[in-house]
Design goal:
One of its GO terms (biological process) is L-tryptophan catabolic process to kynurenine. Keywords: Hydrolase. The protein is of the alpha/beta class. The protein has two domains: 170 residues, 3-Layer(bba) Sandwich (Glucose Oxidase, domain 1); 34 residues, no CATH class. The protein is built from four helices and 13 strands. The strands form three sheets. The protein has a nine-stranded mixed beta sheet with strand order 1-13-11-5-7-9-10-4-12, with helices on one face. Strands 2-3 form a two-stranded antiparallel ribbon. The protein starts with 5 loop residues before the first strand and ends with a strand.
Length: 226
C-alpha cells in the first residue's frame, strides 16, 4: 500500500522508438517480438501476451554512468552498491541556463553535498527532442567536479545533454567524478518539480556485468507537504 505521506516525482524521459539521445549514436528500435495475436493461438482461455524487443545503445534516454564507463578497472553496473543509487538524500541546485552555461566551483562552494545526490537543475530539458538540445548546453567545469569530490558528493545528476562541455574533445568531469566512484545521471528532466532539499533520490539500472551505462527510471520521494 502506498504511503499517503509520500509522493514520487518522475525525473526520467520516456524512451521512444526512433528518438535520438546523443547525435552519432543510433536511436532505439522498439517492436513486438511476440504479438498478442500470435500468442492467442497457444492458450485456451482467451489469454494473449505481448513480449517486446528493444535494440539500443546503453546511452539512451535518462541514464546512469558507472566508473566502468570511463575506466576499464572501474565498477560496472553489476558492481555498484545499491546504497549509492537508491533512496539517497538529495538536493537540487538551481543553475538556469539563461544565466550562463558553465557551472563552476563558486556555484557549489557553499553547498552541503556530503553523502547526497546533487542534481543540477538548468532547465535545458525544455529542448529535449529538438536540435537545440545537442549544442551549447549547460555543463560542469573540472573545478566544480573536483570540489564535489572533495566535499563528498555521493551522486551527481544534470538535466542537460552532457555533464561535460561537449564543444571540446576532453571530458574532465566524467573523468574526475567516475575516478572517485561517484555515479553520474544525465539527461534528467522535471527537476523543477523538486524542492531544494528534503527528498530522497533513486536511479537504479539493471544489474548488468561488463557495462558501464544504462537507462534508469530516476525519481525522487518527497514528503507530501514538500
Amino acid at each position: 500500500m502506498a504511503d499517503p505521506a509520500k509522493r514520487l516525482v518522475d525525473l526520467s524521459h520516456v524512451i521512444e522508438h526512433g528518438m535520438v539521445t546523443y547525435k552519432g549514436l543510433p536511436a532505439p528500435l522498439i517492436c513486438d517480438y511476440w504479438t498478442r495475436e500470435a500468442s492467442a493461438a497457444l492458450y485456451e482461455d482467451g489469454a494473449a501476451f505481448q513480449i517486446g524487443r528493444i535494440d539500443m545503445v546503453a546511452n539512451t534516454g535518462t541514464y546512469l554512468d558507472s566508473p566502468f564507463h570511463r575506466y576499464e578497472q572501474g565498477a560496472d553496473l553489476a558492481q555498484l552498491d545499491l546504497a549509492s543509487l537508491a533512496t539517497i538524500d538529495g538536493m537540487a541546485v538551481r543553475a538556469p541556463h539563461a544565466q550562463g552555461l558553465a557551472i563552476d566551483a563558486p556555484d557549489v562552494a557553499g553547498l552541503e553535498v556530503r553523502g547526497r545526490a546533487v542534481l543540477f537543475h538548468t532547465g535545458w530539458d525544455e529542448h529535449w527532442r529538438t536540435d537545440a538540445y545537442f549544442t551549447d548546453h549547460p555543463y560542469l567545469t573540472a573545478a566544480a567536479a573536483r570540489l564535489l569530490v572533495q566535499k563528498g558528493a555521493k551522486l551527481v545528476g544534470i538535466d542537460s545533454h552532457n555533464i561535460d562541455d561537449t564543444r571540446g574533445r576532453t571530458r574532465p568531469v566524467h573523468s574526475i567524478l567516475l575516478a572517485a566512484g561517484i555515479p553520474i545521471c544525465e539527461h534528467m528532466t522535471n527537476l523543477g518539480g523538486l524542492p531544494d532539499e528534503g527528498f530522497r533520490f533513486s536511479a537504479v539500472p539493471p544489474k548488468i556485468a561488463g557495462m558501464g551505462t544504462f537507462p534508469v527510471r530516476a525519481f525522487a520521494e518527497l514528503a507530501s507537504a514538500a
